[in-house]
Amino acid sequence: MPMSADVPQAPPRRSPPSLATLILLSGLSALGMNVFLPSLPHMAEYFQAEYRLMQLSVSLYLLMNAFLQILIGPIADNLGRRPVILWGIALFLVATLGCIYAPTAEIFLGFRMFQAVVAVTLVLSRAAVRDMYDQDKAASMIGYVTMGMAVVPMIGPAVGGVLDEIFGWQANFWLLFGLGAATLALTWQDFGETAMRSGKTLLQQFRDYPELLTSPRFWGYSLSCGFSSGAFFAYLGGAPFVGSEVFGLSPAELGFYFGAPAIGYFLGNFVSGHFSVRFGINRMILWGCWMNAIGVALSMLVFATGNGSAFSFFAFMSFVGIGNGMAIPNATAGALSVRPHLAGTASGLSGAIMLSGGAALSALAGAILTVETGAMPLLWLMLATAILAVASILVVIRREVQLGLR
Questions:
Q1: What distances in angstroms separate CA 341 from CA 78, 141, 192, 347, one per listed residue?
Q2: In the chain, how many H helices and how many E strands?
Q3: pTM for the whole thing?
């Protein structure tokens, strides 16, 4: 008898992916976002374009990433994690070659948007964790998995700055191509299917969105994740300008300083991995959001006293990283656990909320900064998003008290 369309189908007989593979998948997504940032001034010279146009390579990438995440979740819930990840990485390789050989800034930006298909690696590595573990354990494991998002940004801009000075900006994209090809081979070998296929059509999968969008807890978790990471995305959009134009750093120096939030993110992920099960995800998110806000406020205080410098600006960003490392894995696990049967869809939708806001904040940061204003407009923007993150998780905590979940 044929299986009913409403009965979940068992995944193919393959072993689930190892933790190392999941970390590498999240790392590839992070590297594609920031490895080339120290090269932006040289890329503007190469394409004979304004810096603000080249800075769109960040915000447009994030915007396309957000759009794709809306599609990735339902598609992966319908077809499975494995095939969607493999096709996504393959298309990423094609887009990377397009970036390398682009003759104009406009064509480069087009392929840069195409590169955002690598979002599948982050969305589905997180969804795979939620497929395999319950909420608090998933938060702990997502903390470990997203260490790939910490280790890679820690060294990526530094490596990218050195590659730019020695070989030119294209070397950063050749690095992405080589690592993407290696990740594709590893994923093919190791990433077994983890999802119970829903048996629903793709249209039916998209019809599940209202179930998430009408949940206050899903919105609270997603917005706390989005606003907390919003401080970092504003940093991505504005820090290259602050470093190169305000403080006069070279690409290699900028790459070295740029990794400060990633060092903090690594530490925050470590805390999440060890303590999320003990203290619960809501406390970890709240503490992380406060750490984020305090780091930005301290940096502003130093600048207000006239003692601001490149070192102080980037050093205090490590507090932002710690806060994000604590908040993001736990908020993600919370969003994926509101409706566990929609884990892939929830991962994509919460990621889209986070990245669409990130794209706007990145573009805004690049637009409001001038040499005369220095770093303060960027810091005000980051502080505002950090405070909104605190407010969002407090909404979740209040809602769970109302529902008797606490």
A1: 12, 19, 19, 11
A2: 18, 0
A3: 0.69
